[in-house]
Amino acid sequence: MKILGHRGMGKGEGENSLLSLIRATQLGADGVETDVWLTKDGSLILTHDEDLKRLFGVDIKIKEVSYKELKKAKLISDEKLTTLEKAYLELPDDVIINVEIKDPDAARFVVPLVKSFDALERTVFSSFIHECLSEVRKADPKAKIGLLIGEDAEGKGLEYIEELIGHYAPFSLHLPVQIFERFGLKIGLELLKGFRNKGIKIALWTLNDPELALKVRTQCDYLITDNLTAMLAVKGGR
């Protein structure tokens, strides 16, 4: 089981900043999960939201500004916004990076950048916007795509997920931890085992409860968490 720091050290202050990503790896995380948007001048910025209201209290949409404008506004720094390029430059070269594509316009740019660092093997590209996965696969058939399942699957049943798997042939299936609330622990684990028996890696997000992590770790390949210290302790206790 690999532990990935959600947005680095977790959701909240400093999330997706370079310092947060680095700190997660320094604590012992196997990798990080981060989110990417494209600026109007083609820079790949790491941030979760389409605008900067929640994080920095400013009414700026990433897609409507340039990197230069963000820098002029003093929003580019190790403690605030950074780029995907900077992350690959500064993080250790053995760290797993789960690049979640928030912006469809960013999809065709992420693979060439990752390849420029010879980091395709340790990168998983995921997105709730599943068409982005086709763009990633088109950019390089060897790219690892993570089928991210969220609200789109509500009420659609397991058949919907099976159809998506058949269409995208993902490297990994990224499931919300709420799967165990919906199906119960025993059935949930059986479902994960079934997917893994088909050769699909399982990533659970966002798993912050160490007791639940202890129960599911045998059927989890990647655990994405805001509670990094506790999850590392769970892993170390095996």
Automatic annotation (TrEMBL):
Record-annotated GP-PDE domain positions: 1-235
GO molecular-function term, one example from the UniProt record: phosphoric diester hydrolase activity
One of the GO biological process terms: lipid metabolic process
Highest taxon listed in the record's lineage: Bacteria
Cross-referenced Pfam families: GDPD (PF03009)
Protein name: Glycerophosphodiester phosphodiesterase
